[in-house]
Amino acid sequence: MKLHHQIFLAMLAGAGIGAITGEHSTLFGVSVLAGFDLVGSLFINALKMLVVPLIVTAIISGMVGVGGGDNLGRMGVKTVFFYMSTSLVAILIGLMLVNLLTPGIIDGEPARNLLGLSAETDNVLAKIEGRGAGDFTEILRQMLPPNLIAAAANGQMLGLIVFALLFGFYLRTEKGSAGETLRQMIDGIYQVMIRITMLIIRFTPIGVFALIAATVTRTGMDAIEPLAWFFLTVLLALFAHAFVFMPALILLLGKRSPIRHIQAMMPALLTAFSSASSAATLPLTMECVQDRAGVSRKTSSFVLPLGATVNMDGTALYECVAAIFIAQAYGMDLSFGMQFMIVVTALLTSIGVASIPAASLVAITVILAAIGLPAEAIGLILVTDRILDMCRTAVNIWGDSVVTVLLARSEGEEQVLSLPVNEMEARAAEAAREHHQAVN
Ligand code: ASP
């Protein structure tokens, strides 16, 4: 059975089992939920373990591979342009729908009393502490970490990326055997990381089963009801961005079939959905984009690690919808200027949001503070956060992969999405075999 079918079945099984499992259910005296948590976190840890070496070596070898200064400048400008403009479109789609559907106003009244602030409100701030950049100055600070090891240990990827970009930039032109050895060594680490990723990928169905079962056991489906309109608004906006706007880009600019691209990305998308973490999904994203979509290593290893950290379409959209929903629920009148500020803040903070579950909540508190609402107001949306987090993370990954395809196409990569997934994978496996034979 194909991997994404296995993952899909595992998700269904996880949801089914999670629905009949209570938070306190036990099996042979052992908590079932604790079992799901253990298996889920082993899977996520295994993926996260790869992230630091993978991001650093991918970016450095990506920089070396991109070649001369002109190439690099062109790729850099195109990447930033695509990332920023697609995120902006996502936010504008959210803005339009939240103004149209006004989920925070029910029967002409602000929904504040109807919703009641979540009982968990007191814990909210403690819960989200350390989940990413608080404000713009913090984002800037993270870009130049005083201590690289500490940045890596704390998952502050922005600093690592800046360092890796600089390192790659200079390693590119380092002459002599020292430069050559170092380039080969970094390339070797990267190759090994990809092979370990492939090993972990085999366990994806089991990991995904446990993650979904734990989430459904904890959240249940009842939680969604009081926030149904908000929930639907976010889903609708994410859907429009992911299934209308982005496919149109692949079709019109990339001149390839969006359906073929969804097939290629399925394992990564399902893992993003189950794990709610772009960082943990990155190894799979790279694997799908290279081996299943046929994007060159040169392009993908430069664009994807950057995207997993700074390009979050789903998150940016969610921040905007959530902030405006809360303002509506509080009965606040949002002027054009205020909405404009929300859009800009959502765009900028989505860059600094960490690629881990629930990280948007920090950014939303920043936006709330900017429009004069108490940070605790995010208590309103906590109940639905996990499920929406799963959806927006999948959209984040989808956005990264689409931009990578567009970039590859604009660089003249003909092979991208040109063959069925199976054939593409078979070719990649063949190339890997030849590589190993040559090495040995
Ligand atoms: N969970 C998201 C991600 O990892 C970030 C967020 O929106 O909370 O991409």
From TrEMBL:
UniProt membrane topology term: Multi-pass membrane protein
Question: What's in the keyword line of the UniProt record?
Answer: Glycoprotein, Membrane, Symport, Transmembrane, Transmembrane helix, Transport
A Gene Ontology molecular-function term?
Answer: neutral L-amino acid transmembrane transporter activity
Asked if the keyword Transmembrane belongs to this entry, the reply reads yes
Stored Pfam families: SDF
One Gene Ontology cellular component: plasma membrane
**Which compartments is it annotated to reside in?**
Membrane
Q: Which residues cross the membrane?
A: 46-68, 80-106, 148-171, 192-216, 228-252, 334-356, 362-383
- What Gene3D superfamilies does the entry give? Sodium:dicarboxylate symporter
Q: Which residues form a coiled coil?
A: none
Superkingdom of origin organism: Bacteria
* Main localization of the protein described in the UniProt heading: membrane
Protein name listed in UniProt: Sodium:dicarboxylate symporter family protein
